[in-house]
Specification:
Layout (H helix, E strand, L loop, with lengths): L2 H12 L49 H4 L3 H9 L17 E2 L5 E5 L4 H6 L5 H13 L8 E4 L13 H18 L3 E5 L1 H8 L5 H4 L4 E3 L2 E6 L2 H6 L4 H17 L2
The chain binds iron/sulfur cluster.
Length: about 250
């Protein structure tokens, strides 16, 4: 078995996907079509335009000083930020990582302990699962952009507070403006609620195309949640397949 096949099996196993192997050669990189025979039923259907919820992002996003920043100024502003109480206990700010010209942006909630220590989002077990989700979707971590709503770790990994999100959000808004992605994947309810300005349950948001400004957005589960609830990996896989189809169908 070649190394790639072995890695692919490991990634799919991490996603909770049982790979039914045929005695055929695999493509060099598993696109969505390469995973059709993995024991999954057909994925969800993209809902029609007129069925989309009319959810709009926050008005007034981006403070003037932040909205005009380039990458360097933005990163510097975050690293020295003291706008909310979270700066008091952070080890490092966690700005974001990946391709700054990416077609895909993945948005999580906030740094955890390992992210706080390393200064990079989605490291540790949740990061490994996110890497698996990306790989299964036909993406490499290096080709997407990954960031969190909050750039500093909430103590004891508690939920982000509304005032913290409000203070930190302009940084994320500017990151998305600079990347100009073709798809945003909101990982978990906090990211979805922040980006979409809604309190709807995650179950009512996933499985369909939403929009952040004019950028298609798909909501799915946070990898940390999936580690605790592996039965929902199947739904996350369906969400990512939907996102993939939307990107491929875009003009
Ligand atoms: S969480 Fe955001 S707003 Fe709060 S101190 Fe950190 S960078 Fe600043």
């Amino acid at each position: 078995m070649v190394l790639h096949d072995y890695l692919r099996r490991q990634y799919l196993a991490a996603m909770g996907i049982r790979a039914w192997e045929r005695r055929t050669r695999h493509a060099a990189h598993p696109g969505p079509g390469a995973l059709e025979n993995c024991g999954f039923p057909p994925g969800g259907t993209v809902r029609a335009e007129d069925q989309r919820p009319s959810i709009q992002p926050a008005a007034g996003c981006g403070q003037p000083a932040v909205s005009g920043m380039d990458w360097g100024a933005l990163e510097q502003a975050v690293s020295s930020c003291t706008k909310c109480r979270l700066h008091l206990e952070r080890t490092r700010t966690v700005f974001g990582t990946g391709n700054r010209h990416a077609r895909w942006v993945f948005i999580g909630e906030a740094p955890g302990s390992e992210e706080d220590r390393q200064g990079e989002p989605f490291v540790g077990r949740a990061g490994q699962l996110l890497n698996a989700m990306l790989f299964a979707t036909g993406l490499a971590r290096e080709e997407v952009y990954i960031a969190n709503v909050l750039k500093c770790r909430p103590p004891n990994n508690r939920d982000p507070q509304p005032d913290e999100v409000q203070q930190c959000e302009p940084y994320l808004v500017r990151q998305i403006e600079l990347v100009q992605p073709r798809m945003i994947v909101a990982l978990g309810r906090h990211a979805a609620h922040s980006l979409l300005r809604t309190e709807l349950a995650l179950g009512k948001l996933r499985g369909q195309q939403l929009n952040y400004h004019d950028i298609p957005l798909v909501v799915t589960y946070h990898p940390a949640y999936l580690l605790r609830n592996p039965a929902d990996k199947r739904k996350a896989w369906e969400d990512l397949r939907l996102a993939r189809r939307l990107v491929e169908a875009a003009p």
